[in-house]
Amino acid sequence: MSTFHKLTVQKIIKETSDAVSIIFEVPDSLKESFTFLAGQYITIKKTINGKEIRRAYSICSSPNSKQLKVAVKAVEKGQFSVYATTKLKEGDQLEVAEPEGKFILKPEANKNYIAFAAGSGITPVLSMVKVVLENQPTASFTLVYGNKSAESTIFKNELEALAEAHPQFKLHYVFSKALSGDAIFGRIDKGNTNYFVKNTYKDIRFDAAFLCGPEEMINLVSETLQAAHIDKENIFFELFTASTEENNIAIPDGKTELTVLLDDETTTFTMQMTDDILAASLRNNLDAPYSCQGGVCSSCIAKVTEGKAVMSKNSILTDSELEEGFILTCQAHPTTPRVTIDFDDV
Q1: Is there a contact between 133 and 162 (Cβ–Cβ < 8 Å)?
Q2: Is 246 helix (H, G, I), strand (E, B) or coil?
Q3: pLDDT tens digit sequence for 277-321
Q4: Does the structure show a pLDDT above 80 at 194?
Q5: Quick one: which H or E segment has residue 319?
Q6: So what's the pLDDT on residue 118?
Q7: Which helix (H) or strand (E) holds 52?
Q8: Which residues face 68 on adjacent strands?
Q9: How far apart are CA 238 and CA 242, in angstroms?
């Protein structure tokens, strides 16, 4: 379960015109709790204008650095992102949950890694780049990083310093709104993906691929990599934005008796089947874990142990996880008169 701690903002760094990185001061008593793997994220909780906001942000620092650092890019109507990039100050405190997430890289010797990131999707990938370079000098890392322009490229200077210091790190830019001599013009699409895996690096066998960005990009790159003979089980991804397209599912117009196991306590209440399980749980004063509420992160995952539930959207859970009964509660609707879910067995 998500446990929140008050952490002080130690430093704020202006990365681009609309993005900042935030370094938190982690006291010695919490250092073990905030140990993380490259690729994991934290959830930040803040009350803004009387409303509690929770948002997930990937950690961009290296686990070896003992530093907890995230990047926040302002998005239109993004309550927390606008606050963080315009009003948050060094010395302020935020409630931060302990690191979680399954989009991780544990580097191995003599492996060749490739990543495709777009925009703020660089944040977990930067942590992965660092941990490979620091821990496995015989491994290589190739990064294809898409942005609108050089000016909008988060961590550009840091990435270029890493590429200069480590020959096994290959850095490539793709800019969609600006011409640049050191970048491909366009987007990370099928053609540009093939350019790298079938041409530039045709003699390299990539052992794993890591994708982070919008869902459309991830789906396209994943399909292209599989066609280029990179096995599906070696392609890992994390969404920063998901499509709004929902599954065509039939949800009964009735009521369900929902039983929730959370923090070793059981609560039962009645809910509408057309409602999602997370929203109903929160309205019944349960402190259920969540972050994005959009089916992008995995904070709200739970297991159905009795009855059935269907999801209106799923871009995260694997087939094996679905077979085990796991659901994203923010997308799940009960379809039987009684349903029991377990937040603890995840």
Answers
A1: yes
A2: coil
A3: 999 999 999 999 888 777 778 889 999 999 999 998 887 788 888
A4: yes
A5: helix 319-323
A6: 96
A7: strand 51-58
A8: 24
A9: 10
Residues 6+ positions from 307 with CB-CB distance below 8 Å: 256, 334, 335, 336, 337, 338, 339, 340
Radius of gyration from C-alpha coordinates of the chain: 21
What mean pLDDT, rounded, does the chain reach?
Answer: 93
Q: Among 320, 330, 325, which Cα is nearest to 340's?
A: 325
Q: Are strands 301-306 and 326-328 parallel, antiparallel or unpaired?
A: antiparallel
Contact 202, 106 (CB under 8 A): no
- pLDDT tens sequence across 117-165: 999 999 999 999 999 999 999 999 999 999 999 999 999 999 999 999 9
CA distance 106 to 326: 24
H helix intervals, 117-204: 122-135, 156-165, 190-194
C-alpha neighbours within 13 Å on the C-beta side of residue 35: 4
Q: In 10 A of CB 229, how many CB atoms?
A: 10
CA gap 120, 155 in Å, rounded: 10
Q: What is the mean pLDDT of residues 99-124?
A: 96
Residue with tokens 């004063």: 285
Mean pLDDT of all residues in 188-211? 96
Would you say 262 and 344 are in contact if contact means Cβ atoms under 8 Å apart? yes
DSSP string, 205-238: --SEEEEEEEHHHHHHHHHHHHHTT--GGGEEEE
pLDDT at 23: 98
Classify residue 118 by burial, with Cβ atoms within 10 Å: 0-12, 13-18, 19+.
Answer: buried
